[in-house]
Design a protein that fits this description.
The complex is a heterodimer of chains A (about 250) and B (about 270).
Chain A lengths: L1 E2 L2 E2 L4 H16 L8 H12 L2 H34 L1 H16 L6 H8 L3 H25 L3 H9 L4 H39 L3 H11 L3 H28 L2 H5 L2
Helix pairs in contact in A: 2-10, 3-4, 3-6, 3-8, 3-9, 4-6, 5-6, 6-8, 8-9, 8-10, 9-10
Chain B lengths: L1 H12 L8 E12 L2 E12 L3 E5 L6 H9 L6 E6 L2 E2 L7 E4 L11 H5 L1 H5 L4 H14 L15 H14 L4 E5 L7 H17 L3 E6 L2 H7 L2 E5 L6 E5 L9 H6 L1 H18 L1
Parallel strand pairs in B: 3-8, 3-9, 6-7, 7-8
Antiparallel strand pairs in B: 1-2, 1-4, 4-5, 9-10
Helix pairs in contact in B: 5-6, 8-10
The chains are: A mainly alpha (about 250), B alpha/beta (about 270).
Chain lengths: ~250, ~270
């Protein structure tokens, strides 16, 4: 971006917003907005507390286990739907309903089914992430060039090797895009799950801070979570870029 | 007049050329897509060790016929015999070269070329050796570890050709292999194909819509009529190919054959 002929670095706008936040905070207009520097200080204090570290371990565990299940289920289901029209007709409607449904509403049901524990949080992450992975995988499979499938057939590849050597590799860009979007949704899932249960991990901390109007800590935790979500998405995004040339040469 | 032509076509198409040793025999192939008839009662003999071309206007079903011979499509009626045996799908004695190359973009040139051998369970060292040899054969030595997106269109099609050569099939089926490359590359490629045909003792079945290309390359040209495609006539251009490419392209007989085919095809275009 250039401004008045001067090249402005990428993150410059972020600094502008931080300064604005600082000013509003210093003006002491509303207690909800403490100065940004105070939030940063609180964040530093926060990451050094045992409570936060334990909550982080709990949250990461729930997130990665839930994501693991979402990928382990979502990719095969997407492959199945992409390859088998009957499966697509059978499952397509439900996947499309769930991918746009307000899934938070289901968390209380999960609580009844699975109890007020980490299992529910894991299930929430799974439920938030799995649908988009299914849909993107399916789209990837459907975009596998027909001639590549014919090529595999004419050179004697059976169903299984066509799947492992052609379909999955060809659909990899879409599968990874699905996983990246799934992870972003998964972060939402882990936070919403914990908030609704409110006795686990970050949910407990959020509950504690907001109930006691500890706004500095509250914002600090929020920023840390945002940063985590961005980091996760960026990580998968980098992996996607590495194999981006796939998409460029597919017709 | 239309009726006369139809009778003429039927008479010309029926028996096919008297070939002593056909490697591929197409017998009464009919292909219907719903109510459209793409091919109707096609008989073709492909002589062993020769280059036979399927030539015809767009939509005459020449690619469909090639894919039926490849076993990639099922015919509505009729059968295809390869080495005297009816086929029921793709087989190791046939290799296909695709119009859009059909290379795996995530794999290097050598992995692409070795794909067919890998599917046949050839051990890694052996198949890489064969692949390397075929890559040299098509003039791509030094590009073994490149990826398809790093190559030009012409080079990509050479990879496709090397892949077909690697499985040492008896019959190479080429579906408009040069239609996606530029004119210079196309000519160079045609010359290489002629050279390859003399080196390797293989049968080529070639689909094209270019008359010049067909006459330049072929021992026999099977002309298909417009939809529903059927064999209109078979031409065997007896062109002396001992000269240089430019001499061939100026050869009286070459030019006459091109002209003759153009005249008989024009009836279908108009």
């Amino acid at each position: 971006m250039t401004l008045f002929g001067v090249r402005v670095p990428m993150m410059a706008s972020l600094i502008l917003w931080c300064v604005l936040w600082e000013i509003v905070g210093r003006l002491d207009l509303i207690f909800l907005v403490p100065p940004f520097t105070a939030v940063l200080a609180a964040a530093w204090e926060l990451v050094n507390t045992g409570t936060f570290q334990r909550a982080t371990v709990t949250t990461l565990w729930a997130f990665f286990v839930g994501m693991g299940f979402a990928i382990a289920v979502g990719v095969p289901v997407g492959l199945l739907m992409g390859r088998v029209p009957a499966a697509d007709r059978l499952l397509g409607m439900w996947v499309n309903v769930f991918v746009s449904a307000p899934l938070s509403a289901l968390v209380p049901v999960l609580m009844i089914l699975l109890g007020m524990g980490e299992t529910t949080v894991v299930a929430t992450v799974f439920l938030f992430a799995v649908w988009i992975i299914v849909l993107d995988t399916r789209a990837g499979v459907q975009h596998v060039p027909a001639s590549l499938l014919e090529m595999a057939r004419s050179y004697g590849a059976g169903r299984w090797r066509t799947l492992t050597r052609i379909v999955i590799l060809s659909a990899l860009p879409e599968i990874l895009a699905g996983i990246r979007l799934g992870m972003i949704r998964g972060v939402k899932g882990v936070v919403i799950g914990q908030l609704l249960i409110s006795i686990i991990g970050y949910g407990e901390l959020f509950e504690l801070y907001s109930r006691n109007f500890l706004m500095e800590q509250f914002w600090a935790l929020t920023i840390l979570l945002f940063a985590f979500a961005m980091l996760v998405a960026e990580g998968v995004g980098m992996l996607e870029k590495k194999i981006e040339y796939y998409a460029g040469v597919r017709q | 007049m239309g009726a006369v032509r139809r009778i003429d076509a039927a008479r010309a198409g029926r028996p096919g050329p008297a070939t002593a040793d056909p490697i591929v025999q197409v017998r009464g192939i009919t292909k219907r897509y719903g109510s459209t008839e793409a091919l109707k009662d096609v008989d073709v003999d492909v002589p062993r060790g020769k280059l036979t071309t399927l030539l015809g206007p767009s939509g005459c079903g020449k690619t469909t016929l090639l894919k039926i011979v490849a076993g990639l499509l099922d015919a509505t009626a009729g059968e295809v015999l390869v080495n005297g045996k009816p086929i029921s799908g793709p087989g190791p004695e046939r290799a296909f070269v695709f119009q859009d190359f059909a290379l795996m973009p995530w794999a290097t040139v050598i992995t692409n070329v070795a794909f067919g051998l890998e599917m046949r369970g050839v051990p890694k060292a052996e198949r890489l050796e064969t692949a390397r040899h075929c890559i040299r054969e098509v003039g791509l030595a030094g590009f073994e570890d490149r990826y398809p997106h790093e190559l030009s269109g012409g080079m990509r099609q050479r990879v496709g050709l090397a892949r077909a050569l690697a499985v040492s099939a008896d019959v190479l089926l080429l579906d408009e292999p040069f239609s996606a490359v530029d004119e210079q590359t196309r000519r160079k490629f045609q010359e290489d194909l002629l050279r390859l045909r003399h080196q390797e003792n293989k049968t080529f079945l070639f689909v094209t819509h270019s008359i010049e290309e067909a006459v330049y390359l072929s021992d026999a040209i099977v002309m298909l009529s417009r939809r529903p495609g059927r064999v209109n006539r078979i031409i065997e251009p007896a062109i002396d190919r001992s000269g240089s490419p430019d001499e061939i392209r100026r050869d009286r007989h070459y030019l006459d054959t091109v002209e003759e085919i153009w005249h008989s095809l024009r009836d279908f275009v108009e």
